[in-house]
Amino acid sequence: MSMGRLATSRCQRRRVRAVAAFTLIEVLMSIFVLALGLLGLGAIIPGIIREQRVASDRTLGIVVANDAKAYLNARADLRRLGLPRAGTGGGSGLGTTAGQSYGLGAWLRDDQWSRSYTWDTNSIDASDYEDLGNVVIGGRVSVGGSTGSVDPAIIPLSDRLYPSPASNLSAPQFVWDFVARRLPPTESGGYALMADSSLGLLSGTPEQWRTGVEIAVFVRRVDTGIRVPRGETGFGVMLGSASTQILPVGVSEDGIPTGAGANTSQGQIYPPPMTLRAEYDNAKPTLLRLENDTLLSGSEPGSTVTLQNRLLLASQVGQQLVDNLGNVYTVEEVVDSGTSFAEVRVRPSVSAWIPSTSGGTPDWDDEEAWSEIRQVVFVAQPPAAAIVFRMGVEPNAVKSPSGSGAGRQPL
Questions:
Q1: φ, ψ for residue 362 (rounded to 5)?
Q2: CA 208/CA 186 separation, integer angstroms
C-alpha cells in the first residue's frame, strides 16, 4: 500500500471517529435540558403531594363529620327540648333530677334564638369556647321553688378531636365544630320529635318552639405548626395536661389564622364558626354577595373578629359556605371585593327554586325567612368537610305554614 493511500485511510478513520463523538457544546446542552426537566419535576412534586393530602383530608373529613353526626344524635341530653314538670301530677316548676341537662332546648325555648331561622351561636358560652374550645349550650337553669339547678349541656373539646384521646396515637389530626339553626314550623303546627309532649309544654307555646334544629358540622385539620415539647403529647398540649396549652386551631383576636394553634395567653382564640350576611340574585346563580351580618345580636364567640378579616376568611378559594337554607357551597374565586363586602363565585350553582334576596329583615313567621338566602356560616380554615343534617324532625316533615315548601329541599 502506498504512503498516499495509507494517509487517506487514516484521515477517513479520524472523520468517522469525529462524527461518532459528542462535542462539548452538545454535552452542555443535554445537561441543560436535563436540568430543566428536573426543575420542572421538582416544581410539580409539591403540588402533587398537596393535592394528595387534600384528597386524603376530604375522605377522612367525611368520616369525621359522620362520626360527629352520630355523636350528636347519640347524646340524649342534647335532644331534649325542655325539662319534665316537677311531681307526678304535672304541677308547675321544673324537674329536679340530678345531672339532668337542658340540651338544645336552651336554644329552642328562647324565642329570640335563630328567630328568622339563621345560624346562631349567641347561646354558646363565648369565653369557654374561645379559651378552652368547649361548647357550653346555654347557662345553668335554676329549678323554681327548690334549691336545685340543672347543668347546661357541654360538648368538650376532647370529644371533638379525631382520633380520640383514647386512641394509641400521640396527637389528633382533625377537630370538628358545629352550629345550629331553628327549622321552620311543621305544616300541621304540631310538635316535632324533639318537642315530645311528655315534656309538658304549655298550650300557648309559640310555633317556633315546636320543631327541631338543623346542624352544620365543619371538620378542620389541626394546625400543622403546633410544637409539642419533648416528653409531652399532642393530646396533652391541646387538652391542657401539658405545661402549656395550645388549642388545635387558632386565630388572633381580630381573626388572622396563626397556623400554629391558639395560645390564649398570647391573645389568640379558638376560632368558632362565624357568619356573614349574604345576598343572592337569581339572575346570577353562581354568585353570592357577602356583607356584615345584621341578623344576629348579642355576644357570640369570635365577636372580636373584624369584618374585613371575616370577609377575607370567607372568600378564600376552597372555603366552604353554608347558607341559612342548609345548602353547602365551595368558593371558586373572588369576583369583586371592598372594605365592607366580597362577591364570590361558588359551586354548585344556587338551586333554581330559590328566589332573589329581598329587602328588609323578616320575622320568624314571614315566608322570606325560610325561602331566601340571607346568611352564610363558615370556619376560619377551609374545612376538610362540611355536612348538614337535622335533629328532631323527619327530613320531609318541615313545611311552611302556607304549605308552599320548606326553606330547603328534603335531605
A1: -70, 155
A2: 9
Strands 342-347 and 328-337: antiparallel
347 three-state secondary structure: strand
Dihedral, 290, 295, 300, 301 alpha carbons, nearest 10: -20
DSSP strands (E only) in 208-352: 213-221, 251-252, 268-269, 274-279, 287-291, 320-323, 328-337, 342-347
Among candidate residues 226, 236, 254, the one with its CA nearest the CA of residue 130: 254
- Domain limits, the chain: 42-391
Which residues have C-beta within 8 Å of that of residue 324, sequence separation ≥ 6? Answer: 117, 118, 119, 181, 278, 373, 374, 375, 376, 407
The model's pLDDT over 122-145, given as tens digits with 9 standing for 90+, comes to 878 899 999 999 999 876 666 554
**What does the alpha-carbon distance between residue 113 and residue 162 come to, in Å, rounded to a whole number?**
30
pLDDT tens per residue across span 352-405 = 989 999 988 887 777 788 889 999 999 999 999 999 998 865 545 555 443 433
Structure pTM? 0.80
Counting Cα atoms < 13 Å in the Cβ hemisphere of 142 gives 4
Cβ(117)–Cβ(143) under 8 Å? no
Query: Taking Cα atoms as reference points, which of 48, 122, 46 lies closest to residue 302?
Result: 122
The closest of 281, 336, 329, 280 to 311, measured between CA atoms, is: 336
